[in-house]
Amino acid sequence: MTCPQCHRGFVRRSHRTGSAELLLSFVYVYPFRCQFCDHRFRAWQPGLRDTRQTPERREYDRIRADIPVRLSGLPGSARGRAVELSINGCTVNTDVMLADGAQVEVTLEGGPGVRPIIVPAAVVHSIRAGTAGLVFTELGATERERLRRLVQDLAARVSGGRR
Q1: What is the pLDDT of residues 95-140, one digit of tens each?
Q2: Domains assigned to the chain
């Protein structure tokens, strides 16, 4: 399946919202979200029955990554590594203990000669030993486009160019 807006094949089933989407699911019409351009759309998927498993809170797949990051807005700043990345958030390995619900600025540092991607506001959404899940809550248009390109490049590497 491809996104009707950007024509890329990296889409994910989305959460149903409202009674109309619940009713549409009885005739195999489900909501999807493009993982690159953020477009939400409905598509017919005959034979695909909705299985009632534990609901996934994420709307976006996170792609494996290994990107140095700097977290600011703490008492001081901290270094870490983004080990998963999407256009909506990341999972960061860091030695600093972050508080659930805390807001931080995230700088995804590229290699030499590459301008870092700066996310002015991200909220700590989950915490595990040495790891924090961050949801990006503020991101300028230029930085969002650069992040989309980075996620697209990572997805192509992970899937061998099949996405």
Answers
A1: 988 888 999 999 999 777 889 999 999 999 889 888 999 999 999 9
A2: 1-59 (no CATH), 63-159 (2.40.10.220)
